[in-house]
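Hello again,

I reread your note about wanting to compare the complex against the isolated chains. To keep things tidy I'm splitting this into two emails, and this first one only covers the full assembly. Below are the input lines as submitted, including protein chains and any nucleic acid or small-molecule components. They are followed by the predicted structure of everything together. The single-chain runs will come separately.
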Amino acid sequence: MNNRYCVIMAGGIGSRLWPLSRKDTPKQFHDLLGCGRTLLQQTFDRYSRVVPKENIIVSTHIDYSALVREQLPQLPIDQVLHEPAFRGTAPSIAYVACHIRQLNPNANIVVAQADQLVLNEELFVETVERGLDFVSKNNKLVAVGIKPTVPETRYGYIQADAPVEGFDGMYNVRTFTEKPEYEFAKIFMESGEFYWNSGIYIWNVNTIIDTMTTYLPEMMGELEKVFREIPVRAERRKRGYEIYTSFPNASMDMSVMERADNVCLLVGEFGWADIGTWDTLYGTLPKDTDGNTVMQSRTLKYDSRNNVISAPQGKLVVLQGVEDLLVVDNGNVLMLCKKGSEKHIRKFLNDVRMKLGEEYL
Amino acid sequence: MNNRYCVIMAGGIGSRLWPLSRKDTPKQFHDLLGCGRTLLQQTFDRYSRVVPKENIIVSTHIDYSALVREQLPQLPIDQVLHEPAFRGTAPSIAYVACHIRQLNPNANIVVAQADQLVLNEELFVETVERGLDFVSKNNKLVAVGIKPTVPETRYGYIQADAPVEGFDGMYNVRTFTEKPEYEFAKIFMESGEFYWNSGIYIWNVNTIIDTMTTYLPEMMGELEKVFREIPVRAERRKRGYEIYTSFPNASMDMSVMERADNVCLLVGEFGWADIGTWDTLYGTLPKDTDGNTVMQSRTLKYDSRNNVISAPQGKLVVLQGVEDLLVVDNGNVLMLCKKGSEKHIRKFLNDVRMKLGEEYL
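Full-complex prediction:
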């Protein structure tokens, strides 16, 4: 049990949920599901059922470490790692792997995302435990894949190959694919071979460090040198941060998972969603009889249908004659966007950055 | 010149402009036209050109006297009269008339509304001066009537009768009419006999007190008794407020103007609008090439047309695919209302009062 570790990745900006998710308070720090706990807190609660609390590490950007401490006050400061810069998932996972190996060279790690919905926690716990057990005996990188329920175009897919003998629901992996067009997503789903890539990874610390050394040798070399040569923790952290900033941007999927030949897929059937977009959030939250979803605020609705409303607690939103609109009121930004046009949010953000300034991001 | 007085009526709630106009800060205290001065301040500036500043009295509800003092710091406290209760325009005008007669028994008074737009101030000043001159010599109640430019259904109309000999633009009055249906408004306009009732009234202090004594004898009797019998001003005010609260609700138009036989109409051609509704405000404010009107806030607009946006200064409003919508973000209320449905605002307010509570009014 004490070899089990969890890394909660909580450093993202969540820009597709702008303007609720903001640079200073990204989505993982919001109670998006209205259950009284933020996504980060829910994630912590969920993984606490699999991994001892003292082995849970939150990896976040340095700007958010105060928020993490505020929302998880029980977490000792040593269990919060601060990335000094946004460099994508690969450097982040590499750093935390080196850090954990220093603590426990036999660690088996589950990498968790801080912005996911899980419906059946019992099945979830069972799946992750089986994965941790598997990687303790096999030099494999395990990606948890979710059986598709709809031909979703907002997720990446993993194609399963032959099943792993003697381990139910575990497959070798043929390919990782990026978010597909709708036609492909349909084919993927019908084939029965493709699974949503949940971004939940499970591996032994030595397996991941060895594999990353193969595909990102420079980065891993520099990191391992720091951890090997600087015994004092504070100093090591300081130097680690310095070299971190010099790393290129790299995503774990593209740099490692899609290239490695020791990747397996573990099927998860626990009811899962990535809360990355307004669209997913709308799909996830309860609706009134007219199809309106209201987050936090109070509403009076007249002749209004299929809207998504997010406004601060205590604010009254009055709707009259409004349909298919996404309304997000947060701080100094109010966004009204026709539903289905959420894909434009990146453009809005770009324009805001160019024309108006950082205070609206 | 020193017989000229002005009463600025600034006690209304402006509920048709909710949720920008709020119980705690009604529309007259907002810079609705984005010119750097609130409607009250603009009204004060405008009438200062006709009446000496020391003869301008602001009549407001007691809840707003601090706002009046804040926005017109140059106004001595004696020139702010506080109604202790909302009782409509007739008691308000009666009280202030008694008050002014105490100061100057030869006063000629212009009653001004604090929520109007005037385009040509030169012509405006000339018109009001002519009216004040007229009532100093004639025992008449003068209502300023505006020549209609569209068959407006949101204004009351005054029908002119025979012209007053020897005084250009002055007519006897045949009838006052309430806000008409569109078909009637069209007929009114085409007839050339009907004028918009601006709510700007001009009269000598003795004429108005005598006329009101005819139509509201009880109220005037009680008020005059207080002013006659209590010499100390503070005490008089105290007693005056006590009886004020006991008065029934009464509008000046229905209780006095529509019944009196000494009413004249003075034609105003100075470009006028009553800023009572979102619709008028939209008609008044500048629009971008897509017909959007934005008050105060900053906006990014994509594929959005004919909207009215009012949000706090410094707030960014992003619109995508939105048409014909009235968006008002003020304090703890956000209202999205299809344009043309502003008539429902009274219903919203009722529902808010019944279901949610005073803090949203």
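For quick reference: The first helix of chain A runs from residue 39 to 48.

B.
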